[in-house]
Each structure stands twice: as structure tokens, then as C-alpha cells.
## 1
Amino acid sequence: MTRTDPRFSAVAKARYRRGNAGLVTILTGLLLASCHAGPNPANDPENAGYSLLYRLLSQQENVDKALWLHKVDPPAAAVIKEIAKTSGDARKQLEAFARADPGLQLKIQPLPKIEQETRAAIKSTETRVLLTSWGTTFRLRLLLTQNDSMEYASHLAEVLARDENNPERKRYLESLSEKFDDLNDKMVHLLSAPEPTK
């Protein structure tokens, strides 16, 4: 069968139609998939901020376990326990917000790989140093890490509150920022005051 043969033209047209039909099917499937997928929660700045806060709170609610390793003076121990309780309560409240709003994602990973690895390395070093410290050195290192954490938590909650459109969540984040700011002040006071004598 040659190109001039009428049958060639009919076969070519049929193949062309089948090829186009397949292409249309593929394109339609891709369009439908993209519509159903919706926005990627990892690209949402609000979800990124809430996930960072949630992860921090989940870590901080266990900070009082450091007191199982070594004892510190009662004023320092009281503030460490207050940090753990405040963080645990806040974690539960964020989970309640997420249950009420399925669009709010708390467990995405918004950080680039290099930042994740850097934070993990810092945390590993801090843990190792705390485990091998004693007495005044242990107390100082524990308070320093908590001072940094409370400062970060306060500012993170403040920035989230600034951009939050939900009035209930906005009020809560503002209040949480103030609580962490107060705890940060307590850390600064403990660090600047002489350690109580036993």
C-alpha cells in the first residue's frame, strides 16, 4: 500500500484519531488529578509555621525528664517543669485546632534537608553534653538551652498570630507567645542570679 493509495489515507486518519484520543485521555487524567490533589500543604506558610511550633512543643514537653538525670536547685527545677507543662498543654491545643480544621497540618516537614540535618546535629550535641555534665555545668547548660528555646517559641507564636485570620487561634497564639516570653524572662533571671547554695 503506497501513500497515493486511498486506503493509506483512511488508515492514516484512523491512526491519527486513535493517537489524539489517547493524548486527550492522558491530558484529561492529568488535569483531573491536579484538581483533586489541591494545594500542597507543605507549601503553605501557615502549615509550615504551625508544624515548626508543634514539633518544638512536642520536644519541650519532655524537657523535665532531664531532671531525672541530675538534680538542680528548686527554683530552676520549678521553671523547667513549668516549661514542660506549658508546652504539653499547647501541643494538645494545636491538635484540637487541627481536628476542628482539617486544612491545618501539624506534621509536615517544611525545612530543607540541610536545615533538618543541622538541627538534628545540634540536638544530638546538646543531649550528649547534658548527659555528661554535672552540678553547676549541667544547670548552666540546661538553662541556656531553655533560654534559646523559649525565645524562639515566643517569637514563632507571635509571628504566627500576626498572620492568623482565625480569631480564636490568633488570641491563643498571642497568649502563648506571652507565656513563653515570661518563661524566657525567668530563664534570664536564673542565669543572671547566683546559684542558690544547698
## 2
Amino acid sequence: MTKQNAVLLVEDDRDVAFGASLRLRAAGYETLLAHDGREGIDVARRRHPAAILLDVRMPRMNGLIALDKLQHDQQTRDIPIVMLSASLVDQQAALDAGARYFLTKPYRPTSLLTAIGKVIAESHCE
């Protein structure tokens, strides 16, 4: 069952994860944390968050591979994913791979909250 207000942050930079978590919690979301793609997939399967904020460039398993695995997994394919990267080169690849939204680091806090709110609202309409 989907946790209606939970957002999974999959980010290897602990400072970015901490900042995003603070902003999301201040907006009323519960946050779940993972620090690489493999851990993110495991948490998504166990907790089934309402949305995932997924960094593209991470060790062990990058975000594009994790995105593909999440979308092809019966348990997680319906979870909307917002991709995050410092590289604009990653934007088209992420969107083509099925990300619902893309944020460029450094992101504006309002952009983060808008993206998460939009993808969660859209997933409830599907």
C-alpha cells in the first residue's frame, strides 16, 4: 500500500539529502532515505512511497539504472519519480527513461516542493 505522504530520497550526497529532507518534512511529507540506487530500490519495494526523488549520478547503481528497474518492477512501477542532477546532459535521458519531472542541482526549494506535489497529485488521478 502506498504511503500517501512519504517521499523516498535516493541521494548519495548527504548534505543534499539532508536539505531536501528538511524542506519536505517542513511541507508535511514523511521522508525516507537511501544513499544509492540499490538501497533505493529496496526501500521503495518495502515502503512503497508516494513519490521518489532520485539522483542520477551515484555509486553502486546510478539513478537511470535504478529508474529502469523501478519501472519494470510490479511492486514499484506506479511510483512517480522526480530525477535530480547537476548535469543538464542527464535531463533528456532521465525524461526519456520515464522520469515524470527533472530538477537541476542546485534546485530552488519551491521547485522541489512543486515537482513532488505535482507528481503525487497526478498519480492519484491515474
## 3
Amino acid sequence: MDTDDRGFPRGHLRVSDADRDRALAELSAVVQAGRITAGEFDERAGQALSARTGSELTVPLADLPLSHAPAEVDRPPAARPRAARPPARRPLSRVVVASAVAASCFAAVAVANALQPRPTLQQREVLQQLMARQGISVPLPPSPGFDWAGTLVPGAVAVLLVVLMIFLCVTRAARADRA
């Protein structure tokens, strides 16, 4: 078949749905590269979808660079060799980094509250006697015991933030695998 540089039929030869799909894929790549705006994409996509011939299909792509090598057009997608490049490593998202910092802070608060020494009964009695010498009568407060809320709440928040980080990393990896 007589084709142009993009692999579309030349002149007044009819185009197929696959040809229109390839033109839309090229337009999509050009929008993502920032060569045309979303409004231009809508207009050009409409032209590509309504194109009946090769000359009509090349009009919305005429001022755009080729997005693939012409030799790849004739080969089916399964026969095209994959580029042998290592997967791109994207930096961690800001949400994951912020969650890691916040989880560390909450974990530190939980540990500090768990390990904080409480005054013993003897220390509280000494404090009461010192206050009594100054003429201040203070009843002996009950033993505060272990600070459950001050330990468990920050610990639970830290665990939830770690779960959020794992979720974000797993979804990002799944998204990268699909791409």
C-alpha cells in the first residue's frame, strides 16, 4: 500500500479505524509533550475522527513532528522491539516524604510519653511536705499512672501514616508497571 511518512494512506485512499486511532495517539503524545493545547487537541482530534481519506487525516498532524520511526508503522505492535532502557526512577512524592516525617514525629512523641518517668508516691509526699512548710496546703494528687492516651494516640497516627506511605508506594509502582 502506498503510505506517507506517518504510515497513513496517501491522497484520496480511504483510512481505517486503526489509522484514525494512531493519529489520535500521536495527538495525545503531542499534547502531553506541550506542543499543542487541550483546545487544539479537541479540534484536531475531531478532524482526525471525521477523516475519510489519507489527505484529510494528515491535515491535523501536518505541522507536528513525527512521533515514531516510519519503519515501525508497517510492523504490528507485538513485533516492534522494546527499548532496552532501565525504568525511570521518579523521586518520592511529596506526600510520601511528608508522611514519613510526620510518622517519625508521632512515633517519637509516643515513645517519649511511654518512657517518661512519673513521680513516685514518695516524691509526691515530699512535694506535699515542702508546700506545707510554705503554708500552702495541697492535697496529694492521685498517682497519674501510665499515660495511655498520650502514648497510644500518637502511636496509632504513626502507624496510619506508615500504612499511607505503603499504599502510595504500591499504587505508584502499579501505575508504573501499567505505563
## 4
Amino acid sequence: MALNKAAKIALFAPQTSKVFLTLLTIDHADLGAPLRFVNDNVDVTSNGDLYSAFPFEVILPPERADELTVGRLRIDNIDRGITSTLRSISTAPSAAIQVVLSSDPDTVQLGPLNFTWRIADYDVSTVEGDLRFEELLGEPFPGDRVTPNTFPGVF
């Protein structure tokens, strides 16, 4: 996804008044609705979804051609509702990350980057865990065997 002109100008300028916001969506089949957060002091509406102002930190995985890398997500545990919600699910939730400009929150500058969030630890101050891309290297390729039973028109 290419950055628009306003975002490029803001990135390459020595100083700018543009503010980049990170949007985080945590979702799971067991949740009634996704949890949506923005790393800002005020709530933001982007593409019709309300993102609640909430402190969190994302460390994206580095790009390497020879291995699957792991990122990190740390959310401040100032609201005990997050911990109780995450305790209620049985498998790892998904985490989608998007970057927008505060002046134009409906235009996604980066993302969505979709991860699985493997929660490693939580305490009274933080909930944190690894961000992993979907494991595609272990999938069989090709996905089907070409036999007379599965593809009769080939034979």
C-alpha cells in the first residue's frame, strides 16, 4: 500500500504538524465485538469504527528472508476489563495494526498488518505477548494431490 502525498511530505519533512496514529484491533471468535484501541489521548473514528484512546506499544517484526520473525505487543493494564476479557478466550486472538494520519483517519497509510497475538505474560501494569504472522511455511504445497479420484478430468 502506497503512502499518499500528505503522508510522504510529513515523513520526509524535518518538522511536521502531522501526527501518525496506530490503530489496534484485537479480535477472537469468543469475543462479542472486537477490542479497538488507538495510541492517542482522544478516541478516533476510522472507517466507521470507534477506536478508544489507550496506551499500547507495538514492535513490528523485522524483515528477514530466511526466517519467520516475531514482533511484540504491550498494552497497559490500566483497565482490568482487558485482562478479564483475554482470560475468557481459549486460543490466541488476532491483532490487526493500521497506521493513519490524525488529520485523515479514514485513509489507511499502512496496513492492515494481521498477526496472531500469543499472550505471554500479564501483571498489574501490562499485558504483553508475541505478534506472529500466519504460519504458511508448514502448509503442504500443493494443497491437493492430483489423482484420478480428486481430479477425474485431468486423466
